[in-house]
């Protein structure tokens, strides 16, 4: 049975980089059927909504979505379109791998770190936000559940086990946030005991950030709460050349969304300048999720060769070419 994929081309540079990924998926022989849907500014202009019902229905129906960057307008009622999608489809696990590619401007070599972030709870979820009438005070609520913590930490250990990784580091701030971060750490310790073959470590979030800059090779799998994971995953992207080199997956029980994690870059939209690597790597994640690892590896090998050789690379990678030339270089290798 042919796999149907929901495709959100996104805003700004989204259509250009998504089209690049689709060409590569087709070239490697995935034989997908694509259902295109609108979200973000494009949907607002076409349908009067940031997330139209028909888009949500298609995401639910197909279960697998490839997504370009979306723009959330200021004052439109959404904390974030991405947050709304994660809540809507209970996408509890955010999976952000970073790997070094020779040929980038990265400061480090041989980086291979996966950040696994709880996606639905904690401070980042936007729970209980309010501002006093006179504007002098603002507050928000952070809520962590044992169920949510156990689910995400188990996800991290199962991924480590499946991929043959050796260590899981639980990142927290339990020394100060003794209730919420304290519960997360307590549960992480309990789950870690179930996996004696994997080294379990724990680290306070501020020290983690410092250690990632000073000695990133000590990390393998990082698991943490929502807000800390949002920050750490971008820091990790900086180790390998920036957000243009980092994909993201949002995983739930019955649904998964794979995305470029960078913004929509409206200043270069339509100019054939964007590096499509992030969404190509998200496509690789999608293929692995669909148990199509052989095709995922072919794309990864071709992409790595283009970047390492400098053949038709984009400006951020030190080249002078655009999205279409970069894509063509990958296609030729496939």
From TrEMBL:
<dbReference type="GO" id="GO:0006102">
    <property type="term" value="P:isocitrate metabolic process"/>
</dbReference>
<feature type="domain" description="Isopropylmalate dehydrogenase-like">
    <location>
        <begin position="4"/>
        <end position="330"/>
    </location>
</feature>
<comment type="similarity">
    <text>Belongs to the isocitrate and isopropylmalate dehydrogenases family.</text>
</comment>
<dbReference type="InterPro" id="IPR019818">
    <property type="entry name" value="IsoCit/isopropylmalate_DH_CS"/>
</dbReference>
<dbReference type="GO" id="GO:0000287">
    <property type="term" value="F:magnesium ion binding"/>
</dbReference>
<keyword id="KW-0560">Oxidoreductase</keyword>
<protein>
    <submittedName>
        <fullName>Isocitrate dehydrogenase (NAD(+))</fullName>
        <ecNumber>1.1.1.41</ecNumber>
    </submittedName>
</protein>
<dbReference type="GO" id="GO:0006099">
    <property type="term" value="P:tricarboxylic acid cycle"/>
</dbReference>
<dbReference type="GO" id="GO:0051287">
    <property type="term" value="F:NAD binding"/>
</dbReference>
<dbReference type="Pfam" id="PF00180">
    <property type="entry name" value="Iso_dh"/>
</dbReference>
<dbReference type="InterPro" id="IPR024084">
    <property type="entry name" value="IsoPropMal-DH-like_dom"/>
</dbReference>
<dbReference type="GO" id="GO:0004449">
    <property type="term" value="F:isocitrate dehydrogenase (NAD+) activity"/>
</dbReference>
